Amino acid sequence: MASEYVFISDLHMGGDEQLTALDFEAELLDFLAELEERGGDVELIINGDAFGLWEYAEVTGTEKLDRVIEDHPRVFEQFRATGEVIDIPLIPGNHDYDLACYTSYTDRLAAYNIVLEPVVSITREVDVDGDDGDETPRIWIEHGQQHDANNRMPDWGNPDALPVGYFVVQRIVAAAGRYSGRARGDWLRDIQSVAPMEEIPRWLLSNYFYREMSPYLRAVVVPLLLFFNITLLYLFGTVLEVMGILPSAFFTDNPVIHALGIGAVVLEFIIAINVVVIAILLLLAIPLWLFRRDLRRTLDRFGVMLSGVRVGQGDEPFLRAARDVLEANSDVAVFVYGHTHRASLTQWGDRLVINTGTWLKKLQHVETWFSRLPGIYYPSFRLNYFRIFPEGDRIVVEYEEIETDQPLDLTRFQRLVARRPPAAEPIPARTVIDPNGTLETPDGAFERDSDTGADADPGSGKPFATVDGSDGDRADATDRTGEERD
């Protein structure tokens, strides 16, 4: 067993065309070089989705990894150098599931001192003092895709037994990589950072409006949208004037508006257009609502969801799985997973559940200062890693974020109208647990309703994390930045 374990996941290196770009290459190289320089009895464990092999449609089989290595030679050379000093085990996730299907990958990665363990989960022991014959505490490590209905592998190790998530990635994400060069800018390659996947249509609409729409058309549409609320107020005021509640000079014959000259004509023209749009929407609203209602009922009879494949299930399935593992294995003190791209630390008494997050860019939907303009997906990074090591008879978990320049890939107009997103909830820098302590899950958390199968506590979707590192003080610390929406 090692004296220290370092965890990262969800690097997603690789993909067709621009998907293979690595925004965090410099930070990853520095991180690996620091581990090489420090050395010691350390394991760097990559718990899944190190590579984006699903994102390739132009190459197949083991050639996918060759393409990743070809695109990122500096990273793999640094893996080789770091792996000469410390151990680097890697387990497959769903996006690099091929690693579990072909034995040739083991030797290919070994050439760069990466030890492939092609299994669903692994464990590691933590050598704390004072065991006195008790079981040595363990860390349970997995990627987590088996708890996601859309990405669960039905026959682990079978390259032809693929979940629905694979086909979604191939049809949508990989295609975006192939066509990204046709876009104005490289925004299309960020599709792999959109979560949950139901957000993709709204994300596409936002980027069309702010990036792909003709600037001349946008110059016409923006004033119409900005004055939409004014138009509603104008219509409401006109009704009040007709009813005699307000004087006629308040809206329809306001001398201040007439004093604007040509500006008054432009304003009245915009209001007239908006009135026509509102009238059309009102005429279509009822038949469209009836059609959608009937379509939904028809699709329900055939077992088809109107919204398509849903992937935004939150963290409940993963926390439920962690609870089951911790309850069934008294020697497991820490449960580590990734997959959801939401870094978090959850403390249940003297047991911990850790989500290793992602090194990909994160996109957070934020509203604009003007309610009728489409929302904007604000980019940021949360490069991070967890360290787990013994300290006397205790287990210490340290969390660290790597400083990086925030991406400035918003247009000037987007930066002008976008609201600032709220800061991510903090994760404690240091958490200490007693491996001989008890598991204390929140009362009623993750229970299933026997009739509907729904979560009995719909508010339990966020992990309970100790934001100050003290035992027992739990607060909500999940990064719920608009990523989970119906």
Automatic annotation (TrEMBL):
Region (Disordered): 426-486
Membrane listed as a keyword: yes
Transmembrane segments: 216-237, 257-290
Cellular component GO terms, alphabetical: membrane
Protein's name in the database: Metallophosphoesterase
Calcineurin-like phosphoesterase domain sequence ranges: 6-146
GO MF terms, alphabetically ordered: metal ion binding; UDP-2,3-diacylglucosamine hydrolase activity
Residue spans of biased composition, Basic and acidic residues class: 471-486
Gene3D superfamilies for the chain: 3.60.21.10
Alphabetic keyword roster: Cell inner membrane, Cell membrane, Manganese, Membrane, Metal-binding, Transmembrane, Transmembrane helix
Example GO biological process: lipid A biosynthetic process
